[in-house]
Q: What sequence folds into this?
C-alpha cells in the first residue's frame, strides 16, 4: 500500500455522491465548487469528457467523474455540482451528483482498498473508510487525467 | 073598330090621349099670348132706357151751360173741368141712345141733337176762349145771355113725345095679348073638363060593367052552381079571356063530380077483400102463438143459464126452420160457452202466475234500486279519493319542482367550489415555484458554504473558526433545502388532493345535474299523474251521473213494476170473477164430438194444448216461464 496517498490525520476530505455511491476527495485538491452549467462540447473527445467550461477566463475540461470511474454516463441537471480540482498543474471540472459533507480524517479511519486484482481500480481508489451512511471510497485523482493525455493537453 | 074588342089598356090610352091633346092646344095658345106680352115688355124697357138717355143728354147740356156761366161769373178753372166732365157724359149718353134705337126717325133725331149740341159747343168754347183772356172777358160774359139751348131742348121734346107714343101703342098691344091668353085659358079648361067627363062615362061602360057581371058568375060557380051561363064569351078584350077561363073552371067542376062517384065504388070492393084477409090472419096468429110459446119456453131456459135446453115440439111446417135454427143456436152457444169456461179457468191460472212473477219482479227491482244507491255512494267515495289523489299529485309536483330548483342552486354551488379548487391549485403552483426559488437559494448557499469550507481548510489553522461558520451555514442551507423539499412534497400532496377534490366536486355536479333531469322527469310524471287523476275524477263524475240516471230509471221501473203488479192482481181477480160468472151456465157433460179433449180437466201449472192454439205454442211458453223464474 502506498501510504503517501493517504492523508494524515487531521486532514479534511470532501465527500461527493455519484448515483448511490459516496466518494471522498482530498480537500487540498479542490479549488472551487460550482453549480452545473452546460458545457461546450469538444469534438472527438473521449466519452467521459463532457466538454469545456469557462472559469473566470480559464478554459477547463469538464469530465463526467462517474463515467470516468466506470459507473456509466451521468445525466447532469440543475442539482449537479462541478468540483474544480487541481491535479498537478492541471485544473479540471469534475461533474458529480452532489457534494455531501466535509469529513475530517482521524487515526485509523482510512483503510486500504481491497485487492481485486485490477491495477486500474487500485489506481483510482486510494483507500476506503466507513461512515454512518456506508462505505466511502477515497479517490486518487492522479489517474483521472492520464499522464500522456495530460502532457498532450 | 068595335069598342068591345079593343084592349083595356088601349081604351085607357085613347081616353088620356084625347084629354092631353086638348091641354096641348090650350097651352100653345097660352104660350103664344104670353110670348107677345113678354116681347112688348122688353121693347118698353128699351124705350124707357132711350128716354132716360135723352133726358140725360139735356140734363148734361144744362150742366155744361151752368159750368160755363159759373166760370164766367167766378173765373175759377174748376168749372171748366166740370164742363169737360159733363160734356163726356153727354157724349156717352147720346151715343148709347143712337146705338140702341131701332127706329129711323129717332136715329135722325139723335143726329140732329148731335148737330145742335156740336153747334152750341163751338160757340160756347169760343166764349170760354174769350173768358180766359181778361181782355175779352167782358165780351165773353156778354155772350152768356145770347147762347141758349133752345134747339137742343126742342129736339129733346120731340124725341120724348115720339117715345111716349110708341110706349102707349105697345101697352095697347100688350093688353090685347093678355086678354087673348085669359080667354083661351078659360075655353081650354072648359073643353078639357068636358072631354074628361065623356071619357070617364065611356070607360065605365066598357070595363066596369062587364067585370062586375063576370064577378057574379064566378061567385055562383064557386058556390057549386055549374048551370050558370058565362057572359061576354064573344068579347076580344081581357074580359073575354077571363070568361074563357071561367068556362074552363066550370067544365073542370063537372068532370070532378063524375070521378068522385067512381072512387066510392072502388072502396066497396076493397072492404070485401080485407074481410077475407082477416080470416086468414087469425089462422096464422094461432100457429104463431104456438111457435112463440115453444120458443119462449126455450129462451127462458136459456136465460136461466141452461144451455142444454132444446125445442123438441114440432112446429108448423113454415116455422120448422125456426125451431131448427134455435136448436142450432143453442148448440153453438153451449159449445162456445163451454170453451169460454175452459179459457176462463186457464186465464185464472195464467193471471195468478203473472201476479206471482210481478211480485218477484217488484222485489228484485227494489233490490236493484238499493244496490244502485249503494253503488252511487261508493262511487262518490271513490270520486273523493281520486280528487284527494289529484290534489296530492299536484302538491308532489310542486314539491318536486322546488327540489329541482334547489338542485340547480346546488349545481351552482358545486361550480363555485370547482372554481375555488382551481384557484387553490394555482396558489399551490405559485407556492411550489417559490419553494423552488428557496431550494435554489439553499443549494447556492450550500455551495458557497462548501467553498468557504474549502478555503478554510486551505488556510490551515487560521481558517479553523471560519470552517466552523461555514459548517454552520452549510447546515442551515441543508435544513432550508430539506424544509423546502418537505414543503414541496406537502404542496404536491395538497395539489393532488385538490385535484381529487375537484374531480369529486365535478362528479357531485354531474350527479346533481342528473338529479335535476330526473327531478324534471319526476315532475312530468307527477303532472301526468295529476292530470290522470283529474281525468279519473271527471270520468268518475260521468259514471256517477250515469249511475244516478240508472238509479232514477230503476226507481221509475220499480214504480212501473208496482203498477203492473197491481194490474196483474186486478187481472187475477177479474179472471176469478169471470170463472165465477161462467160457472152460472150449465153447459152439460162433454158432448160426444171430436172436440171432447178440449174440455178435459187439466192441472193448474201444466197448460194443455187446448189452452193455446197448439202444442208448439205450449212448448214455447214453458221455457219463457222458466226464464222468468230464473230472472
A:
Amino acid at each position: 500500500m502506498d501510504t503517501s496517498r493517504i492523508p494524515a490525520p487531521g486532514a479534511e476530505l470532501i465527500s461527493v455522491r455519484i448515483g448511490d455511491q459516496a466518494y471522498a476527495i482530498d480537500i487540498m485538491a479542490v479549488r472551487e465548487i460550482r453549480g452545473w452549467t452546460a458545457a461546450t462540447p469538444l469534438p472527438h473527445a473521449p466519452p467521459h469528457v463532457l466538454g469545456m467550461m469557462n472559469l473566470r477566463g480559464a478554459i477547463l475540461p469538464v469530465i463526467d467523474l462517474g463515467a470516468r470511474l466506470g459507473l456509466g454516463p451521468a445525466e447532469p441537471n440543475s442539482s449537479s455540482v462541478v468540483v474544480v480540482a487541481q491535479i498537478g498543474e492541471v485544473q479540471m471540472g469534475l461533474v458529480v451528483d452532489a457534494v455531501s459533507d466535509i469529513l475530517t480524517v482521524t487515526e485509523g479511519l482510512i483503510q486500504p482498498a481491497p485487492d481485486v486484482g485490477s491495477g486500474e481500480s487500485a489506481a483510482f481508489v486510494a483507500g476506503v473508510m466507513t461512515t454512518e451512511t456506508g462505505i466511502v471510497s477515497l479517490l486518487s485523482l492522479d489517474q483521472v487525467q492520464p499522464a500522456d493525455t495530460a502532457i498532450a493537453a | 073598330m068595335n069598342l068591345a074588342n079593343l084592349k083595356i089598356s088601349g081604351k085607357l090610352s085613347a081616353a088620356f090621349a084625347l084629354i092631353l091633346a086638348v091641354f096641348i092646344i090650350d097651352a100653345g095658345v097660352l104660350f103664344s099670348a104670353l110670348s107677345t106680352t113678354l116681347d112688348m115688355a122688353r121693347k118698353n124697357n128699351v124705350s124707357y132706357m132711350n128716354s132716360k138717355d135723352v133726358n140725360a143728354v139735356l140734363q148734361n147740356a144744362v150742366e155744361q151751360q151752368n159750368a160755363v156761366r159759373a166760370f164766367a161769373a167766378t173765373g175759377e178753372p174748376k168749372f171748366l173741368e166740370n164742363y169737360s166732365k159733363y160734356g163726356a157724359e153727354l157724349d156717352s149718353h147720346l151715343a148709347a141712345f143712337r146705338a140702341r134705337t131701332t127706329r129711323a126717325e129717332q136715329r135722325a133725331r139723335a143726329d140732329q141733337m148731335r148737330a145742335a149740341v156740336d153747334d152750341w159747343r163751338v160757340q160756347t168754347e169760343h166764349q170760354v176762349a174769350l173768358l180766359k183772356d181778361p181782355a175779352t172777358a167782358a165780351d165773353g160774359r156778354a155772350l152768356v145771355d145770347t147762347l141758349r139751348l133752345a134747339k137742343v131742348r126742342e129736339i129733346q121734346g120731340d124725341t120724348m113725345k115720339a117715345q111716349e107714343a110708341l110706349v102707349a101703342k105697345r101697352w095697347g098691344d100688350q093688353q090685347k095679348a093678355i086678354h087673348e091668353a085669359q080667354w083661351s085659358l078659360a075655353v081650354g079648361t072648359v073643353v078639357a073638363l068636358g072631354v074628361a067627363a065623356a071619357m070617364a062615362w065611356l070607360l065605365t061602360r066598357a070595363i066596369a060593367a062587364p067585370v062586375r057581371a063576370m064577378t057574379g058568375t064566378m061567385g055562383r060557380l064557386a058556390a057549386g052552381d055549374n048551370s050558370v051561363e058565362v057572359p061576354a064569351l064573344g068579347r076580344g078584350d081581357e074580359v073575354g079571356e077571363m070568361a074563357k077561363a071561367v068556362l074552363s073552371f066550370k067544365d073542370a067542376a063537372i068532370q070532378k063530380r063524375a070521378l068522385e062517384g067512381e072512387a066510392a065504388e072502388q072502396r066497396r070492393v076493397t072492404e070485401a077483400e080485407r074481410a077475407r084477409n082477416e080470416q086468414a090472419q087469425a089462422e096464422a096468429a094461432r100457429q104463431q102463438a104456438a111457435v112463440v110459446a115453444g120458443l119462449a119456453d126455450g129462451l127462458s131456459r136459456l136465460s136461466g143459464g141452461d144451455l142444454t135446453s132444446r125445442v123438441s115440439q114440432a112446429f108448423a111446417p113454415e116455422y120448422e126452420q125456426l125451431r131448427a135454427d134455435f136448436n142450432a143456436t143453442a148448440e153453438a152457444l153451449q159449445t162456445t160457452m163451454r170453451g169460454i169456461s175452459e179459457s176462463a179457468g186457464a186465464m185464472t191460472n195464467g193471471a195468478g202466475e203473472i201476479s206471482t212473477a210481478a211480485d218477484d219482479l217488484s222485489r228484485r227491482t227494489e233490490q236493484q234500486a238499493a244496490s244502485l244507491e249503494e253503488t252511487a255512494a261508493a262511487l262518490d267515495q271513490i270520486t273523493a279519493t281520486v280528487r284527494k289523489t289529484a290534489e296530492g299529485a299536484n302538491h308532489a309536483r310542486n314539491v318536486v319542482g322546488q327540489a329541482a330548483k334547489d338542485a340547480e342552486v346546488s349545481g351552482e354551488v358545486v361550480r363555485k367550489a370547482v372554481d375555488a379548487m382551481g384557484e387553490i391549485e394555482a396558489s399551490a403552483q405559485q407556492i411550489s415555484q417559490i419553494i423552488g426559488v428557496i431550494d435554489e437559494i439553499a443549494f447556492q448557499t450550500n455551495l458557497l458554504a462548501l467553498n468557504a469550507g474549502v478555503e478554510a481548510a486551505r488556510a490551515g489553522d487560521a481558517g479553523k473558526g471560519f470552517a466552523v461558520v461555514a459548517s454552520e451555514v452549510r447546515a442551515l442551507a441543508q435544513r432550508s433545502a430539506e424544509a423546502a423539499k418537505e414543503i414541496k412534497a406537502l404542496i404536491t400532496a395538497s395539489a393532488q388532493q385538490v385535484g381529487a377534490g375537484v374531480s369529486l366536486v365535478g362528479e357531485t355536479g354531474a350527479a346533481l345535474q342528473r338529479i335535476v333531469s330526473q327531478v324534471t322527469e319526476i315532475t312530468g310524471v307527477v303532472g301526468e299523474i295529476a292530470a290522470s287523476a283529474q281525468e279519473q275524477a271527471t270520468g268518475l263524475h260521468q259514471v256517477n251521473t250515469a249511475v244516478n240516471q240508472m238509479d232514477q230509471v230503476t226507481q221509475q221501473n220499480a214504480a212501473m213494476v208496482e203498477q203492473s203488479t197491481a194490474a196483474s192482481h186486478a187481472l187475477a181477480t177479474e179472471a176469478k170473477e169471470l170463472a165465477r160468472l161462467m160457472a152460472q151456465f150449465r153447459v152439460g157433460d162433454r158432448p160426444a164430438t171430436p172436440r171432447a179433449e178440449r174440455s178435459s180437466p187439466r192441472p193448474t201449472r201444466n197448460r194443455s194444448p187446448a189452452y193455446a192454439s197448439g202444442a208448439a205454442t205450449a212448448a214455447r211458453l214453458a221455457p219463457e216461464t222458466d226464464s222468468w223464474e230464473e230472472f
